[in-house]
Amino acid sequence: MDQISATPGVAGQPGGPEFGRMIEALRTVQAAITGAAPPPEVSAEVGAILETVAGALEPYLVGEDEQLSGHRDDLPGRGQPLLPPLWLDERDETHLRGRVTFDRFHLGGNGAAHGGAITVLFDEMLGRLANAGRNRARTKYLQVEYHRITPLDTELRVEAKIARVEGRKRFLTCALYDGEHLTADAEGLFVELLPGQP
Ligand SMILES: CCCCCCCCCCCCCCCC(=O)SCCNC(=O)CCNC(=O)[C@H](O)C(C)(C)COP(=O)(O)OP(=O)(O)OC[C@H]1O[C@@H](n2cnc3c(N)ncnc32)[C@H](O)[C@@H]1OP(=O)(O)O
Q1: Where is the Thioesterase domain (predicted)?
Q2: 83-192 maps to which CATH number?
Q3: Is 87 a pocket residue for ligand 1 (Cβ < 6 Å)?
Q4: How far apart (Å, rounded) are the C-alpha atoms in residues 172 and 189?
Q5: 138 CA to middle of ligand 1, Å?
């Protein structure tokens, strides 16, 4: 990944507000499909529409560095649909604070967010902080603890901090709160890449 753009796009240009709207619509579709039990004719109709959608985008397939998804810091979750919609409110080279809302797409069971979706959020938070103003680093390990269920459709607070740096090793922590309640937290090690490491 090369550049992350925090500049809102220009209407009528690739990456303009139209792109953000498309990603938002995709998120809505993901949640709607996950939560629906449609009759077969509706499943068939929606499936055909989605095939048409994929076909409309196919001529515009680009390489990783040119894609817009994941490179748009002005959009929740960088415009990357794998990530839950995450808004960063505070950031410097030692800490990050943001808000995130899991929806039906992220359901694990019994109204709780999927543990893997929470781990994706933590990897994102720690990865962004580990790489903030520093040479590139990748996750070596990420240890997650789930303290209580993480609710859906609720705005949650997420905070990440650098705990310590030892040579190439960056140890970080992250915590997710529902109001005052800690729902999950994580400790991770990110290792600075050596020349030639992808
Ligand atoms: C590249 C990204 C660009 C991003 C730029 C823009 C940012 C925009 C936002 C993006 C936000 C998304 C961020 C997602 C972040 C991912 O999800 S990255 C994907 C998941 N991670 C991977 O795929 C990593 C795969 N693994 C690897 O590539 C290699 O194992 C690594 C991590 C580069 C390390 O390899 P290595 O150089 O062989 O390191 P190694 O010698 O084993 O260990 C280094 C040190 O750590 C220690 N260590 C190793 N394991 C452990 C352990 N378990 N416990 C304690 N110490 C340990 C070693 O003892 C050693 O210590 P020292 O001898 O230096 O004191």
Answers
A1: 110-181
A2: 3.10.129.10
A3: no
A4: 6
A5: 4
